[in-house]
Amino acid sequence: MNDFLNDLPLFVQSIGETLLTVLISLVVSGALGLVLGVVLYVTRRDGLLQNRAVNIIVNVLVNIVRPIPFVIFVIAIFPLTVAVLGTYIGVPGAIFAISLSAAFAVARIVEQNLVAVDPGVIEAARAMGASPLRIIVTVLIPEGLGPLILGFTFVYVGLIDMSAQAGVIGGGGLGSFALSYGLQRYNYTIIYITVAVIIVIVQLGQFFGNWLARKALRR
Amino acid sequence: MIGYSGAGKSTLVRLINALERPTSGTVLVGDDELTALPERRVRAVRREIGMIFQQFNLFSSRTVAGNVAYPLKLAGVGQPERDRKVAQLLDFVGLLEKAHAHPEQLSGGQKQRVGIARALATDPKLLLADEATSALDPETTADVLALLKRVNRELGVTIVVITHEMEAIRSIADRVAVMDAGRIVELGDVYDVFAHPSTPTVARFVATVLHDRPSPETVQRLRAAHPGRLVTIAVLDQKGFTGLLSRVFAEHGVENQIVFGGISELQERTIGALTYELTGEPARIDAALAALAAQGIAHDEEAAA
């Protein structure tokens, strides 16, 4: 326990790094994934902007990236990360890798939720003379918002997992803290405290996501 | 437009606002040849055509007022004018007090009235109603049909009604097209089509609302109770029609008794059919029927058992 008190400042810093990594990754992968997911949805057969070629390309891309285990993905894109950021070490490197990987997962989740939007309301908007882009922004996304928020919440929990993995290979945050100060010193107290903190972060995010989705769905 | 499911009604109505494009042929709406216009121009034409749907298709993410305002936003109408127009439309459909409610808080009939208000927002000349009452109970159906009739009479909007319910045609249509297997098999004034159905499909639809001609089962039952000849005569829209029939039968010494039938009103004209049991000498009965035929009164003899 004394060890832990000594490490407290570093522990707090690690919490901050994890939160920063997760939140920025959520925003970046969320935006990127939303665009990709919408592209997947609207280019489907009988979609608003039906386009077989684009649909196949994006689909294949998503299917290539998604099955790669995240730890391997992070290492595999080190050259890309270095090319973009100059280094793969630290929080920025972790955010880059996580955002890229998660974007493809988000794309699928967005696509699946949009498929569930009643095609009738899209037809109604078309019948009123709305352009495809207008329908996407003012009908498709608002109508699918509740499930989309739940999807993003699901991704958020996954991002915490990914941030810990990235931490282990140089990304900082609670993952690297638990490894360096817990495992390598055989101090299980630190590992369990870290786990507890992560559980709290997950729970808070899940509650917030549920609350937001309920507001969007009005139920 | 009436027809069974799969007859092609919805496809036909979607050609009118180019939600679907025909593989061949042209679609003319007013002076616009939709089939010759690019998608961007078609969108402008669609704003002039309202549409309502069987499942209402209201935006669940918007309030009632937000739903009605949506097409006005598309048309670039400014906020003050939009608010004024939304209030006016909701008042017209009798839902002003529900302006801030969300669609899921409304009954089916109320949802469709919001759909109608939304479809009328841009003052279209044409309103497409795709099975607009098929998801509603009979009483609500009557309310919505009455509202559509007001839209037609008071606002001068032409309405294309797609339905599989003859009752809807009977209560609001002036002209009717009967569709079967992708083709229009009959097209004309509603009264004429009801009075003189030309194909079995049309006759079946007419029978669903008029109930004026006996079914084969009914004929069998009638025959068991009535040994005379059974003759069904279409009732024409002329004064003293049944009196005329009675006189002709009496002149020829034919005893007559009405055993089945129905007379109702369609477009403020009389329509229906009566089945008579005629008894007497066969030659006299033939003479009486011939005399009626000479006055343009046709009959159908129910086949002998």
UniProtKB/TrEMBL annotation, chain A:
Keywords: Cell membrane, Membrane, Transmembrane, Transmembrane helix, Transport
Gene3D superfamilies (UniProt xref): MetI-like
InterPro entries in the cross-refs: AA_ABC_Transporter_Permease (IPR051322), MetI-like (IPR000515), MetI-like_sf (IPR035906)
Localisation per UniProt entry: Cell membrane
Name of one Pfam family that matches: BPD_transp_1
Ranges of residues in domain ABC transmembrane type-1: 15-209
Record's protein name: ABC-type transporter, permease component
Organism from which the protein derives: Pseudolysinimonas kribbensis
Lineage: Bacteria, Bacillati, Actinomycetota, Actinomycetes, Micrococcales
UniProtKB/TrEMBL annotation, chain B:
Domain of life: Bacteria
A Pfam family per the record: NIL
SUPFAM superfamilies in the record: ACT-like, P-loop containing nucleoside triphosphate hydrolases
PROSITE patterns: ABC_TRANSPORTER_1, ABC_TRANSPORTER_2
GO MF annotations in UniProt: ATP binding
Residues covered by the ABC transporter domain: 2-206
Keywords tagged on the record: Amino-acid transport, ATP-binding, Cell membrane, Membrane, Nucleotide-binding, Translocase, Transport
PANTHER family: AMINO ACID IMPORT ATP-BINDING PROTEIN, METHIONINE IMPORT ATP-BINDING PROTEIN METN
Record's protein name: Methionine import ATP-binding protein MetN
Organism: Pseudolysinimonas kribbensis
Gene: metN
